[in-house]
Amino acid sequence: TGLKQLSEEGSTQVFFPTRNADIIVGAVGQLQFEVVAYRLKDEYKVEAVYESVNVYTARWVECDDPKKLQEFKDKAIDGLAVDGGGHLTYLAPTRVNLSLMEERWPDVKFRATREH
Fold first, then answer.
1. What is d(CA 60, CA 77) in angstroms, rounded to the nearest whole number?
2. Inter-residue contact 77 to 19 (CB < 8 Å)
3. Least confident of 11-20, 68-77, 85-94, 96-105
4. How does residue 3 score in pLDDT terms, banded at 50, 70 and 90?
5. Contact by Cβ (8 Å): 107, 64
6. Residue 40's closest CA among 5, 69, 91, 73?
7. Which tens digit of pLDDT belongs to each residue from 21-63?
8. Considering just the CA atoms, what is the radius of gyration of the chain in Å?
9. Cβ atoms 37, 49 nearer than 8 A
10. Could you tell me if 100 and 42 are in contact, meaning their C-beta atoms sit under 8 angstroms apart?
11. What one-character DSSP code corresponds to residue 84?
């Protein structure tokens, strides 16, 4: 898709929430969203409608224990998404929320970056 190709350029990240069919584009600043919308229209002939979402930060999720990971996924489903590369991601609405999740789930690693 056009969004996926644009995200591969590195200026944005694309997330697909596990709870619904929305697509979340992560970028720094309003201008970046306007650039994405313009390029989608100009290069891909797609009219994009976008609105802000309540996301403070994204964290890539890892856990060595499959059972603990499944428990986490079941409890945190509203905040989970899959990134453009198919990796599980937690979209924290606030810094406090992220801290609480890290505290409640010590077996789960919340990575600020992900290696390709």
1. 14
2. yes
3. 11-20
4. confident
5. yes
6. 5
7. 888 988 877 888 888 888 889 998 988 887 888 899 999 999 9
8. 15
9. no
10. no
11. T
Complete domains list, the chain, with CATH? 2-111 (3.30.70.3280)
CB atoms within 10 A of CB 58: 22
Tokens of 57: 């930060």
**Threshold 0.70, pTM exceeds:** yes
Q: Where are the alpha helices (DSSP H) in 1-116?
A: 2-8, 30-44, 66-75, 95-104
Tokens of 33: 């969203």
The answer for residues whose C-beta is within 8 angstroms of residue 76's C-beta and 6 or more apart is: 90, 101, 105
19, two tokens? 């709870």
Can you say whether the dihedral through the CA atoms of 30, 34, 39, 45 is positive or negative? positive
